[in-house]
Amino acid sequence: MDTYYFDNAATTKVKKEVLQEMLPYYSEKYGNPSAVYAIAREAKKDIEKSREKVANLIGCDKKEIYFTASGSEADNTAIKSIAYKNRFKGNHIITSKIEHHAILESCEFLEKQGFEITYLNVDKNGFINLNELRNSIREETILISIMFANNEIGTIEPIEDIAQIAKEKNIIFHTDAVQAVGNVNIDVKSMGIDMLSLSGHKIYGPKGIGALYVKNGIEFDKFINGGHQERNKRAGTENTAGIIGLGKASELAKESLNEHIKKVKELRDYYVEQVNNKIPNIRINGALNARLPGNSNISFEGVNGNDLLLELDNVGICASSGSACNSEETAPSHVLSAIGLDSKTAKSALRVTFGEFNTKYEVDYLLENLEKAVKKLRNL
Predict the structure, then answer these.
(1) pLDDT at 268
(2) Catalytic residue at 325?
(3) Is 316 in the same domain as 212?
(4) Most CB atoms closer than 10 Å: which of 75, 105, 123, 191?
């Protein structure tokens, strides 16, 4: 059976160009970058080239990029390292109720150590209220962390406005941009972003590699102890092949960004229009305009989302009911609950996320089988 993949927010297929660039670092250029001999020096030099490619994607200097093992590690590092570094200045952090669990659980961890966290509400489309943000700032506030775009409903937050508010109060602003990088034009300097997390496997690169941007001048504690890699901020032998893959994926993402955005948005808009026309009693979750171009999240009245996923899986279709990181949870999505959905409506949601390898033919196949599956489940 053929596979029809519509879960690009969970992960993406590694591009052939990316894989080809990675392969030599498993067999020929395998030297430890911290060693002094030729193959090690070559690996070290190529890591720095990749660092520059990642920096170019988001508009920063390569010395402001720190490689991590994932977007989740980048998020953990941003939250905890800033908290520990600034704990004598203040103990208050502001975030939102719809963040990825890498942010939320890091904040819960810090709460147990005496830090105070404000979790901002969001409206029915997933936007934070800027006035609530302003009113939540205290003298002890040391960090604001608001995601760039939500992984479930695709809503893009007013990042530049948030950054400006943080700057006015001299507060560090971090954004989890794991979903946004490669899907939105991002320039951290012009946007006023101080720290940003990203991940390789969301932009057609390998899993197990991410990066954290930290603006020059911002001090943060070392998060993993041991060696002196990553300018003495993250110990551990570098994942050279992964870093090379992230660099190539970043380079390709920058080159094709506008074309990519146009393609996935057209597929998404066609899908949503056809679902609206063919299937009654639905609810589109998230913003209609300020939204990731390939994201769709729709609740189907009278249908259980997990049952719907199984029906689609039976015909080779991959989609999701929420974040892949929480696929085994039985509780309704914290994001859908935060935008005001009741448990039943939240559990009837289907997230479909489009990517570069999808075609209109595949979308038509999805629509045909989705209509059948919803009808079958509603009749049951």
Answers:
(1) 98
(2) yes
(3) no
(4) 75
Are the C-beta atoms of 217 and 189 separated by less than 8 Å? no
pLDDT in tens, 183-228: 999 999 999 999 999 999 999 999 999 999 999 999 998 889 998 8
CATH number at residue 81: 3.40.640.10
Please tell me the total number of residues recorded for the chain in this structure: 380
Burial of 150 (0-12, 13-18, 19+ CB in 10 A): buried
Distance, CA of 222 to CA of 276 (rounded, Å)? 50
Least confident among 34-38, 157-161, 201-205, 345-349: 34-38
pTM > 0.85: yes
Q: Residue 122: phi, psi to the nearest 5?
A: -130, 160
Active-site choice (60, 107, 318, 325): 325
Tokens of 274: 């056809």
Query: Which amino acid does the sequence have at 250?
Result: S
Confidence band of 322 (pLDDT split at 50, 70, 90): low
Strands 116-120 and 282-284: unpaired
The domain in which residue 295 lies consists of 4-12+257-379
